[in-house]
Every structure is written in C-alpha cells, then in structure tokens.
Write a structure and sequence with these properties.
There is one protein chain. By secondary structure, the chain is of the alpha/beta class. It contains 15 helices and 11 strands. The chain starts with 6 loop residues before the first strand and ends with a helix.
Length: 377
C-alpha cells in the first residue's frame, strides 16, 4: 500500500545558525544539571537504540536507527524524563523558600506527560490534579489515577483541557507543571524540555559508539516541546553538521506546519482526534517555536492509515532485531519514512537515498494497553 501525505513544507529559514535561539532556550548548565540529576534516579538506565535493518532494506536506505522509549523509567514513554524532573525542580525551589508544604501540582495531558507528573508527585508525596480531554481513553485515565492523581475530564480537546487546568490552578493556588509554554509561563516548561535532553545525550553517545553519522532525524510534534528540546541539544553538539530535521505531524493537528506557513504561532482547532493521541495538540509551545522555525528542515503531515500496520510491524521482527512494543505515536517515524520513499517528489526534496542514515524516536510503548492489544494482538 502506497502511503500518501496531507501536506508538506520545506522550511526556507532553516540554516542551522541557531546560536541565539538555542542558547536562549538552554543557558549554560541547565541541560548538564538535568542530566546529573536524572541519571542518579534509582530506576534510570539508557533506553536501547535499535537498528531496524529489515525496515532499512525495505525502504532502500543505508540504516534506520530507532530509539525505543517503551522501557523508560517503567513509565513507558520519553515523557517520564520531563514532567517528573520539573516536579522535582519546583519542589526544590519551594523548599528553599520554606513553602514546600503548600505545594499541589497540576497539568493537562493526553496521557504520557500526565503520567510523568503524577509519578513524580507521588515520589515526593505531593498532591496532584490531572486534566484530560474527552478523547483520552479510559485506560489512560485509569493509569493516571494509579499514581495517586485526581483526574478531571474536560469536554472538548487538548487545548480546552489546558484552559480548564489554568482556571482551576488560579482558583486553588496550584502549580501548573506543563510541557507546553505560553506568554508569561516559561520556566517550568524549560525544565521539562531540559529533562528531555537526557534522551538526546544518550542518542549522541550511542551513535558515536556505533560509529555512525546521521543524515536525517525524524521527530514527532504535538506542541513541539520534545522536538524543540532535541533539536536545540543536537545543534549544540553537531553545529553545522546537524542532520536534516524532518518534523512529522498528524494532518488533524498540524499546528507546526500551519505556523511555519504563516511565520508565526497559529492555533489549530482540532475537530477530529488522531489515533496518535500524543500528537493531538492545537498550538505550538512558545518556547519550542523559535527552535522549530530555525532548526527544522521539513514538515510533513499524514493521516492515521499507517499507524496500525506499523505498530504490528514493530511488534514482529522480520530480521535479527528484537520485537518492539511501540505505541501509536511510535509508529510515526516509520510512517514518515515510508511516505517519503513512496512519493518521489518528497524523496528528492528531502535528499533521502541509499546512503542515508536515519534516526527516529519510538516515543512510547503500550501506554494504552487495551488499545495496543486491540491493534497488535
């Protein structure tokens, strides 16, 4: 089956000259502090970087490297690195001012970020409130409650759940721990993104151990926090040798592409929910936007047609690689690469050929076990 794309944007402002925006996002020491802290957590260990040689052969490229986040801190998602770390930094700041006893944290989520915040709050015995929208599954809601959070379901989409979270936080004096930022709210999302850079540090070390040189990086974007964090960190390391960055979005929540086309942050009204729940965000994070605007080379939006086949493909190896538990958003990189290879105009524009070495991120495991079982078996 040929994969098609809804829209494609080649970024004319991508030039890797991101000194100012990268240093503004991550001042000296912030990523190093996150790394030193997170790598000391009791359950921390690097997640695997897996060579998908079977998929690379099918796609006609040299190498596909897949970072498997399904085992991250026993929470099954890269987001375990961000929310919990931000909760820790908030608590440490309150302890310095003697105000820690009054701390209650809250956030809006599609699932994985909320799990990280609620888990982090549970570790520190902090009350936690999580706001989810109508499209979040009951299984994900249940998993949040299992970490001690009070779960509030909000009618509407992800952006409606953010609005309700802000309203309730203002009314009750709770501290929002969000992975997206807006005007006047930047410090905590910066700490969330700094947590994500631990993943980027692992990737660089693993790539160097394998003696590979990346040509392309595929990153999923919801609000863009993870993508922005990784691009900034990668650029600080590779500078002018930064691989081409391909941002992938659902056509149903394409806020990065729409913002790119307008050269400013644009709010997308989400009408239909994508199966890739973690990508269902209608507005780009204010912090991530400058990084995406100047660091991303390409943006592609796709439908849900490839999600189930690629989840099944990951689960059953056709070569020497291990079987991989990859959730809905983890299928994104495979869908994107196949879409590029199935459409010659994309392949030519993005410069992918038999010599390409491509990194992609398996962002989550079976974070909705019921849905995963229904799809994969």
């Amino acid at each position: 089956m040929k994969y098609t794309y809804a829209n494609y944007y080649q970024n004319p402002k991508q030039n890797n000259a991101m000194h100012e925006v990268a240093d503004d996002l991550f001042p000296t020491g912030i990523c190093e502090t996150a790394y030193q802290s997170i790598t000391q957590w009791p359950d921390y260990k690097q997640t695997d970087l897996i060579a998908l040689d079977d998929f690379a052969k099918q796609m006609g490229v040299k190498k596909v490297l897949y970072k498997d986040e399904s085992t991250r801190l026993n929470l099954g998602s890269f987001k375990a690195l961000g929310g919990a770390y931000a909760v820790q930094t908030v608590l440490e700041a309150r302890e310095k001012t003697g105000d820690a006893s009054a701390l209650t944290v809250c956030t809006a989520t599609d699932g994985n970020h909320g799990r990280s915040v609620s888990w982090g709050a549970q570790q520190k015995n902090i009350p936690c409130h999580i706001f989810i929208h109508a499209g979040v599954s009951e299984a994900r809601a249940k998993s949040l409650a299992e970490y001690g959070a009070t779960v509030h379901r909000v009618e509407g989409n992800y952006d409606d759940s953010i609005a309700e979270c802000i309203k309730m936080a203002d009314a009750n004096g709770w501290q929002i721990v969000s992975d997206t930022s807006w005007e006047g709210y930047r410090e905590i999302p910066t700490q969330v993104m700094a947590g994500y850079t631990v993943l980027a540090a692992e990737v660089i070390e693993q790539i160097e151990q394998q003696k590979e040189s990346l040509t392309h990086i595929i990153l999923q974007a919801g609000c863009g926090g993870m993508a922005g964090a990784l691009i900034a960190y990668f650029w600080k390391h590779w500078r002018d040798d930064l691989p081409e960055i391909i941002i992938m979005e659902s056509r149903m929540s394409d806020c990065v592409l729409e913002s790119m086309q307008r050269d400013q942050i644009y709010l997308v009204d989400i009408v239909d929910e994508t199966l890739m729940a973690g990508l269902s965000c209608g507005e780009v994070s204010e912090l991530a936007w400058p990084i995406l605007r100047h660091g991303a080379s390409h943006v592609i939006t796709v439908g849900d047609e490839g999600v189930k086949p690629m989840m099944r493909y990951l689960a059953k190896s056709e070569g020497d690689r291990p079987d991989i538990v990859g959730g809905e958003c983890s299928a994104s990189g495979l869908i994107t690469l196949k879409t590029i290879m199935d459409n010659p105009e994309l392949k030519e524009s993005i410069h992918i050929d038999e010599n390409s070495v491509i990194f992609m991120l398996g962002t989550e495991g079976a974070t909705d076990p019921d849905l995963y079982k229904e799809i994969v078996g």
